[in-house]
Amino acid sequence: MAPLEQAVAAIVCTFEEYSGPCWRQVKLCQAELKELLEKGLPTWTPTELRECDHNKFMSVLDTSKDREVDFVEYTCLLACLCACGHEYFKDCTLGPHCSQ
Fold it and tell me: Could you tell me if residue 75 is inside a domain?
């Protein structure tokens, strides 16, 4: 697979790995989202993110206000992270294939 295809597969598989049991609608509760962020983005997530911070984060992501994060809400988070990464690395002196 091409790198972009691998990235998309990783996004889908990671969501499915952390979302609840397969018998319920596939969404992330707050505890699952917290675990996904801490394990899936360990260098991007502060090591001591307080519970109130998780509550605020969850309320911003949960646009449907059902107290869970669905796949579309999750992809909005990832799109924001990609945009921030792009902004951060756009002036990278290592060239177009910046790996840091």
Answer: yes
Tens digits of per-residue pLDDT, 15-43? 999 997 665 678 999 889 989 988 888 88
Count how many domains the chain has: 1
Which positions ≥6 away from 65 have C-beta within 8 Å? none
pTM for the predicted model, two decimal places: 0.77
C-alpha closest to that of 26 among 60, 59, 75: 75
Question: Can you give the pLDDT at residue 96?
Answer: 57
Higher pLDDT, 42 or 48: 42
How would DSSP label each residue in 4-58? HHHHHHHHHHHHHHHS--TTS-S-B-HHHHHHHHHHHSTTTS-TT--HHHHHHHH
Report the CATH number at residue 43: 1.10.238.10
- The answer to whether position 97 is within a domain reads no
